[in-house]
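Hello, quick one for you while I still have it in my head. No rush at all, and the record is pasted right below.
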Amino acid sequence: MSSWMRRPSFLADSSQALRTFFYCSGIVFALGSSLPLAHGDNAFSWVDKNGRTVYGSTPPKAAAGVKKLNTKPLSRYSSDKVLKRLGWDEREKEAAAERSSSPSDAGAGLPIDAAPAKLEPGEPNLTFGQAGEILGCRVTVTNPGAIPAAEISIAFEFPDGTLVPAVGPSTIAANSAADYVIPDELVPFFVKVKGENPLDPAQQRPKVIVHGAAG
């Protein structure tokens, strides 16, 4: 091919640059579509196959009763504000009103000095990935009282302010215990911790927030 028919070098370079750009953009788009949702995404509630109410940012396709929550993201807000927005305190108020307005036989047969339901969380057990991301968190909650505990809601508050609700039984019998875990839909995620060793599990251990009432 004669020199006058050849494509100028700067056009060839531009064409190659565009091809590279669109190729990389396609990779980024493909990866982005498979990455977990960011903390800033919307919050939802839904009912899983076991009848439990789950809070998170990614409802499964087969989930029942999916409801978009009129709330801010689940992360980086004080636990009181998030719990209030999620309606946990409202449920407790309604339950307390029902208990005060209707007789209950929950304490029938118990001694007069029987202890009310008191929930005691154990030490949270964290699971980490190779990059330090949190893959799971489990805690055992004990009811040492002589009265069953009901309407139980558990959440993990991490050192950086990230608040993640847990799933588990809504009731715990007297002198019994139950496990609560972060749902699969909300992991993995990272916790930003300051210090010499930010990946130290002790520095990432969350506080367990427990809400419950006498059954």
User: Anything to note?
Assistant: The chain has a mean pLDDT of 67. Helices lie at 9-34, 79-85, 88-101, 201-204. The domain at 75-102+116-214 is CATH 2.60.40 (Immunoglobulin-like).
